[in-house]
Amino acid sequence: MLIIQSIILGIIQGITEWLPVSSSGHLVIFQKLFGLNVPVFFDILLHLGTLLVVFIFFWKDIIQLTKTTLKRDFKSEYGQLSIFILLGSIPTAVIGLIFHEIFVSFFSNILVVGIALIATGALLFFCERHGGKKELTAKDSLLIGLAQGVAIIPGISRSGSTIGVGLLRGIERDKLIRFSFLLSIPAIIGATIFEAKSVVWNDFELLPVLVGVIMSAILGYFSLKFLVGVVKKRSLKWFSWYCWVLGVGLIIWMIL
After folding, report:
1. Model pTM?
2. Which residues does 214 contact at the CB level (< 8 Å), separation at least 6?
3. Which of 87, 174, 183, 191 has its CA 20 to 30 A from that of 94?
4. Which residues are registered as beta bridge partners of 134?
């Protein structure tokens, strides 16, 4: 892989990772345009770059979660949040393990990406009308974790799915944003460890990978900051139109 290609993929990952438009779906599209055969593990490494942004944005929450977990103080706000993150991670892990081979095959299927983007757009459009003051519950955590698991499919947005399901459940927006992004931490780290076992490291060129990861981290910061403002301003529906147009365009592309 050329460095310029890695930079472009890193830019795409950074911009689309936190926006509800599916970064993995966009990576599949651009890999197809470049004629690249990029391993799924490279996509996951790009996710690690943007994951650094979560630690920057929510470092205070992460410190509090660590402290309460070490103290086993599961009755406090952060203690309960740590339990909810654990509960939400379970369906994500189960779905990822059971359907791993199927999901991997989708990373070379533009038609699947197109259909998935249309589904993402529908969720974003209808969820924007919901939301409320509800506190997060164990049931909510499991459902949001389920949505995150399904979002392994390229074209299904992770942030769009988790936030969308949370809004449909009536969860307060600020707390939903925090939970959605904190929930991504064990998911991305777990996926990285799982995929790393089957990687032929001799096939990887270190410099292009590092450049791509750095680019995804830098742009991911601005992407996350922008999304937080969008969710609070109730403007997710605009992304639904983008997903619909792109999804329909991809389907027409494959048919023609």
Report:
1. 0.90
2. 10, 49
3. 174
4. 171
